[in-house]
Amino acid sequence: MPVAVKDEVMMDYDPSSPQVMNAFYRRLFPPAKLFTHREFAFTLAGDIYIRYNSFHSADDFKKEVLRLNPSRFEIGPQYSARPRDRKTLATGALQPQRRELVFDIDMTDYDEIRTCCSDKKICRRCWGYIAAAVKVLDHTLRETFGFRHLLWVYSGRRGIHCWISDAAALDLNDDQRKSLVTFLEVVKGSSQQAKKVNVRGGRDDAELHPVLKESLDVLKPEFVRVCLRDQDCFKTERQWEALLSLLPQDREVSSALRSQWQSQPDLSSEERWLDLVSAVGELKKNGKTALFHKYEKAMEDVILQYTYPRIDAEVSKHRNHLLKSPFVVHPGTGRVCVPVNPALAEEFDPETVPTVGELLHELNGIPAESEETKGRKMEDYEHTALKPYVDMFVKHVAAVLRDARMSRKSVIKEENTDF
Amino acid sequence: MFKPTTRHNIPASSDPRLEVKLNKRASGVGSSGRWPYRLNFYDRPPTLDITLEEFETCAISRLRVLSHIESLSHRSLPYAQLSAAISTYLKQHLPLASNTARNVNTDEERRRDEIGHWVLRLAFCRSPDLRSRFVRSETSLFRHRFETDDVSERSAFLRSLQLDWQQVDESEKAMYADQLKGCMAWGSKEDAFRAETWFKVPWYNVPDLVGSRRVFIRGGMAYVPQSQQISLVLQAFSARLEKALELTAKNLPRLDEDERLGPVIDHLAASFLSGLGAAEYQSSENSSGSVVTADMVDDVARKHFPPCMRNVYERLKKDHHLKHFGRLQLVLFLKGIGLPLDEAIPFWRKMYGASMSDDKFNKEYKYNIRHSYGQEGRRANYPPKSSPPSPESSQLVYSRSTRGLHLDPSIRVSSVESRFPSLESRAIVSLFKSFGNLRRIADPSVDPTLTPLPLRSCQQILTQNQPGTQDSHGCPFRHFSPDNLQSFLLSSYPQLERSSPEMRDIMDSVKSAHYHVACTRVFEVTHGLKKGDGLGKDAESVSHPNKYTDRSRELEREKLDALKPKEEADDLMQG
């Protein structure tokens, strides 16, 4: 069947249309090797959810995807048995065993501190938060925890996922995942709690953990760039009151700032922050060291609260959590969940990510003879804007496989791959 | 007269009777033989002759201890109190003296300790759930013994284990000096730092230290100071035990038959499971008798809801929406107070309001509600009215008379060694094969195909699924900042006044992290009870939101009942 999409404007490629998805899976979705014990969960049109699918081979998988034509699908863990057989297995025989360590950062968790958009929206400007989060999390995961195979993937709308495929990460049990997440979880607390950073073990003037201190150094410039300049986080009275509520309530400092700022409603966030810095600096000059330290630490906490990655902890804690597969099309936006280079996270613009419509459009424009010119049949994706992303992914997979081959001491029956 | 407090202060020769004992022991099997140390990693299976009587009694006393430890750990006692409670219980049921103890038969104690452990391994290897609970309680027991052990004996024991921890050398220590100091609890005292040594282990071997940020980590290695060594030991202990249990489970079906041991082992596991009841809430008879309808919820909420449920309920009323865990918290709670499924669906429909289309509700929310009532998915549910286990069964009671089995203690099971560890060899258990569902044995009245999705206890609300930045579930005492908590309490409970002594009590308890005490105090104040009355019955404190509501409704009913005869009497007087 030829691609059943009209050859007109891009708007016609509606991601919720079955034909479009079918064409996408048939021609553009990168092939991936699979575990036979790995769970795949499909979401079909009309919010029908099919869990516990598993496949013998990539071809099987592709066939099933083409048959069911899901609007999206998610990847679960590798189980102790084939998930598709779960009804014939004894209770408790199907246990999640290995799974990439995954992280999910979602823009909605930043709603209280972002000023440009809210809820489902995302723009280049709020991406700054995500970029800062990627930067610091990538650094910590590599330097501190020693992981090497990190794949950052844009979630298609307003977030980012991270898949870690090191053998050590795959083998982590739920307890170990939980402890890692607890270590990384800095911004905590419900909507009813103003101060969400409490990482000094009960004493509010204690030093930060060295690893967090490192993160703080990475975040300081981000704080200036994103929060003070771009987002202008302390512009309105409500906003700078929020800032003051995070600091020690000293009459001389906080109250003075409050009255000063009330009289100058037009100050920018950067100017307010500098006011605060100089007021706190005064404390040191006047020999009030104890109070100075309190303010200094509280300001560090403010920076953490406004820039430290707000990870969705539950996703990372349990092996059986499902996470949307890379290269799936987001059903709402039509954008493909493409890998993101963490080193260039700042330059990444979610609005330029190819949509399924654009890609199919590009395909329709391929000249037929170009396939012969290179002596080898080009894959369809190589003609589209998806190519650099697929290349990035292939490189990642190759690195993981190389590593797995090097250290294959334990017997792993399945073909070991990332995905 | 002066009495030395520790026995090893007495010179061995000063007391001839002691002398004799010492000699006797030395000539016997000897503590230097199979059990040189008090602590034991249980690496070698027992190569002993064991009587059936011993097989059973050793296991039972150990089981008692383990389930006691488990229930203690659910009570969130302060550390010192917990440790003292375990000590007292252990002394009674499973004493284990150190090498320096004089007039104790340490060999006999250690033998019983070991047999009990190995028998329980057989009983607990069978399901992942049982395994993990067994490992957790065994590890707590080991931890307690490790901490209370004699210092020199402990280090000798550790040497004997030959754990391969990589020591951090001086140059590396100097390189990370600042970072290492930053993670030391006592600050950065120079001499303390110099005296300390560090071990380097993969971070995932010490998850507890990582989770609480007590160690420095670099390149995947955690730098564990000597003073935190216990984490390493415990990790090694539980990891080995876990692996061994899995092996045992795999080999279990290959065992041949021995009709004498099977029932014992089965019953042990079943007892442990029913011991779980203590931590779980069972709706009491009279509360489940009164059904709550969708229209009544608002009224009941105002009069009887505990603060946590009040909060989520008010949020739902205001926003017409709740995040997942908030929904789960409220759905299960409502189920517990007697809101049947066919009332729950209209109730939730109404609460979501017009902003949500019927279609969306049916598709996305109805399923979850039905799921919580056990009508979907794996149908995980205890019907609220199903016969609740009797209170006796909720504490671990192993009664030999109920077993209905007669083992002749004189039959010697020779050389149990051959069957225990190398489970391929001869067999113990026949019933393992026919062994179906443990739960069926634990409580025959419960349909074995249903696994429980219990109502959320305070314990769970406090510790699981911490509310994220946008969430409103959780325990207000724990998850609100003090200011917000106070204004929330003031607006929800008009009986409370700002700056009243009661309010101060509540806020003090919150500050010292005794959330259930604070909640109990709210109950007392709002129900006109004295301080210390608790929930009015045995001065119980709040441990489950449903209990809060049940008691509140009971009190109301009692009050009404008290009024009724009076009215009748008045009528009579007038008539």
TrEMBL record, chain A:
Belongs to the eukaryotic-type primase small subunit family. Keywords: DNA replication, DNA-directed RNA polymerase, Metal-binding, Nucleotidyltransferase, Primosome, Transcription, Transferase, Zinc. This is DNA primase. GO terms for molecular function: DNA-directed RNA polymerase activity; metal ion binding. Pfam families: DNA_primase_S (PF01896). Its EC number is 2.7.7.-. GO terms for cellular component: alpha DNA polymerase:primase complex. It comes from the Eukaryota.
TrEMBL record, chain B:
Residues 299-386, 455-548 form the DNA primase large subunit C-terminal domain. CDD domains: PriL_PriS_Eukaryotic. GO terms for biological process: DNA replication initiation; DNA replication, synthesis of primer. Residues 376-399, 533-575 are annotated as: Disordered. One of its GO terms (cellular component) is alpha DNA polymerase:primase complex. Residues 533-567 have a biased composition (Basic and acidic residues). Keywords: 4Fe-4S, DNA replication, DNA-binding, Iron, Iron-sulfur, Metal-binding, Primosome. [4Fe-4S] cluster binds at residues 308, 458, 475, 519. Its cofactor is [4Fe-4S] cluster. It comes from the Eukaryota. GO terms for molecular function: 4 iron, 4 sulfur cluster binding; DNA binding; metal ion binding. It holds the Pfam family DNA_primase_lrg. Binds 1 [4Fe-4S] cluster. Belongs to the eukaryotic-type primase large subunit family. DNA primase is the polymerase that synthesizes small RNA primers for the Okazaki fragments made during discontinuous DNA replication. This is DNA primase large subunit. It comes from Saitozyma podzolica.
